[in-house]
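Quick one: structure for this chain?
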Amino acid sequence: MLTPEQIARVPKVLLHDHLDGGVRPETVAAIAERTGHELPVSDPAALGEWFAAAAASGSLVRYLETFEHTVGVMQTTEDLVQVARECVEDLADDGVVYAEVRWAPEQHLREGLSLTAAVDAVREGFAQGTAEAARRGRTIHARQILTAMRHQARSLEIAELAVAYRDRGVVGFDIAGAEAGYPPTRHLDAFEYLHRENAHFTIHAGEAFGLPSIWQAIQWCGTDRLGHGVRIIDDIDLTDPDDPKLGRLAAYVRDKRIPLELCPSSNVQTGAAPSIAEHPIGTLTSLGFRVTVNTDNRLMSQTSMTREMALLVDAFRYDLDDLRWFTVNAMKSAFLPFDQRLALIQDAIKPGYAI
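Got it. Here's what it folds into:
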């Protein structure tokens, strides 16, 4: 069995992490006190516990309501820079060597910021965090994924913003929010635009709504990756555990090597999986799907990449080779150019697992 200390030391790749879901509790409390944003509790330790408890309701809708307080303290250039800087510092301290951090610029305009000013602020915060990590002897490459909210109508505008910034730290596009009632096909114009621009995108699908959401994301919208995608397990007949039978959609996802951005702790909190031990990641990994391990929302799940990996080691007896497989899967699936992905695998990941 790997120890938590061993897991903490190995390099990690993170593809699904929300900027507004990873704010430090003390930062939320400090900015809220300065700006007058009302919180349910003001003590940072108690606030962190409140976020975790509220997110553990088993409802994706209730889970998403917690973001009103993190988004509420990310409305100025100063605050966005701080949150972005601390995000990169925290990921680097956790051994993350490459991260794609997503957030929705349209939710950060209440105090007069423009979309471009918001993206520039996060870009500056990432640069500061990267420099501070280097000062501490850690190397991290952090990139933005710009998210559009699926219940709003600004997806094309955000997609155009992602393309405009793709040579300035933005590597992709995403849609997020409640799945039920807001299918990805409502945003086809954005996805068609991204295809024409040879741009990358991922779609939150198969977390709360199931197979129809996954099917639309892939076959109608042409997503590169599935944000979560955990409900693909519903298309696998496990009546005979020794002879699982993949349905047409599950077989397509596996055959096409479509990456699954699985987030074990978050999936349990939102009811997409019954427990870590019963999480579909075990079956999907054994069947050879392109599985990646992610944090989703570090604040709400009180987690890190080290903790997510440790939970899987405990539940499935994974060893160092398995963790390396997850990490290489993630790096292969990143929205970086191929040569940069290959360089990180060869220069950072493989040597880091030679322990």
